[in-house]
Amino acid sequence: MMTSNPISRITPVLLALVLFVALTACSSGGSASSVDPASVDVTVTTDPAPAKGNEAVKLAGQFTGIELDKSATVSFEIRVGDETEIVDAEFAGDNTFKTDYTFTRTGINEVFVHLYTGDLHVTKKKPVEVQ
Hints:
Elements: H1 6-26, E1 41-47, E2 56-64, E3 73-80, E4 83-93, E5 96-102, E6 107-117, E7 120-130
Antiparallel strand pairs: 1-2, 2-5, 3-4, 3-6, 4-5, 6-7
């Protein structure tokens, strides 16, 4: 009669349990990796609105399609001709990031909003009118 080793019966079950725990830990709900980048959008506003050339404004980006907190990083990339200026923004609550900025060119300015959270990087191009 052949007897089986109790450890050899427990090992596959233990391995399966460890694998299950590892997989569920890596896919926690609400993580940035589970967000479809196409569903993320941002509304860019200025205060005061409309912005006036050569006058400081509060530049804000409010995101939808994702839940953000202060661990996210947001920067505004303002392009004027061949010149590019990147300004970091701070979390202001309610999925909104703000910074101070002075537009030097009137008309429609191209503003690229860069969002970094976890392993997700989303860039959105938004027009900002400056009078």
